[in-house]
Design the sequence.
């Protein structure tokens, strides 16, 4: 066991560098491949010497913003998934467990139906506000009673708020055709039809969220030993959980507000990362973030190549993620967190 741990510790930096290289190659593939492949030479010309050619417009106006947004959302959901599973000690947890997805969905539908908001750039802010508000309510319920939050209370509060908001969303969209269309388009999960403005709106929240996630990692290592042990070692459990929930909220809320809920990514990716890094969250969080971006872009490219952009990335990830997750469970079992 000691030799295994030592070998893993030695290979982590190399594996992390390899993931960065794979991510760069995946970004190149995302720009080159699609419903119609564009040669690398043409892509370079579009970047260095842009003109009015159709291929140049496709590269600069469609594929580059799509790739950038895919990287940002993948980084966010991968890191948030690792933190979520750690804080709830539940290997089946995913970033939306805090009610983030349904909070964002409720505000997106409400802004469209009640406030008559139709601009994507404005809707994002309503979605993020809903995600943030839902997380605050869940954390407040999870800490009610003066004993502080626990993995069980957070999970129960998140489930209760999610079911409540899901019912409210259904009540609104079933009585409004426009609300139903907006909800259907948003809920499928997509990084298409977004430009640089969308990425610029969410980057500040993602940067802060990723920094908080990295700061939260050492405390997660202590919490994984048990609350009593963490307290005996001087760890402030409440502060660690507050920072973790805030990081999850910022990362998931920004990603979901911009692209809708992306299925399976935050659930499967942490398990893939844990197989490479072991249980050390100082490595698990960055590995999960990079793997999230790689998997998201790869699924998007695969969907464009195979279906001509008919399947959004949320659908492709559900089709790919379900069998992969079943394979992981059957082969190794779920890690006890």
Sequence:
């Amino acid at each position: 066991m000691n030799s295994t741990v030592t070998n893993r510790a030695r290979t982590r930096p190399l594996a992390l560098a390899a993931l960065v290289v794979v991510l760069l190659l995946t970004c190149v593939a995302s720009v080159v491949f699609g419903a119609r492949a564009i040669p690398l030479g043409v892509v370079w010309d579009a970047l260095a010497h842009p003109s009015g050619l159709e291929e140049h417009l496709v590269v600069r106006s469609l594929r580059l913003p799509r790739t950038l947004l895919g990287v940002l959302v993948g980084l966010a959901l991968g890191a948030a998934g690792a933190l979520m599973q750690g804080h709830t000690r539940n290997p089946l947890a995913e970033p939306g467990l805090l009610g983030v997805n349904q909070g964002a969905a409720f505000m997106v539908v409400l802004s469209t139906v009640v406030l008559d908001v139709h601009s994507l750039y404005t809707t994002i802010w309503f979605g993020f506000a809903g995600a943030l508000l839902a997380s605050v309510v869940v954390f407040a319920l999870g800490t009610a009673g003066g004993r502080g939050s626990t993995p069980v209370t957070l999970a129960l509060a998140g489930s209760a708020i999610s079911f409540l908001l899901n019912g409210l969303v259904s009540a609104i969209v079933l009585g409004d055709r426009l609300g139903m269309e907006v909800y259907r388009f948003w809920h499928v999960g997509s990084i298409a039809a977004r430009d640089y403005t969308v990425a610029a709106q969410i980057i500040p929240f993602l940067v802060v969220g990723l920094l908080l996630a990295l700061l939260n990692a050492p405390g997660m290592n202590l919490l994984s030993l048990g609350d009593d042990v963490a307290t005996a070692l001087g760890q402030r459990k409440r502060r660690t959980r507050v920072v973790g929930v805030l990081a999850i909220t910022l990362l998931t809320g920004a990603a979901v507000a911009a692209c809708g809920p992306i299925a399976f990514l935050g659930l499967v990716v942490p398990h893939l990362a844990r197989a490479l890094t072991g249980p050390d969250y100082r490595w698990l969080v960055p590995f999960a973030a990079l793997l999230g971006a790689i998997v998201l872009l790869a699924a998007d490219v695969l969907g464009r190549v195979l279906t001509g952009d008919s399947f959004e990335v949320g659908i492709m990830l559900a089709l790919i993620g379900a069998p992969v997750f079943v394979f992981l469970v059957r082969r190794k079992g779920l890690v006890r967190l």
Observations:
- The mean pLDDT is 85.
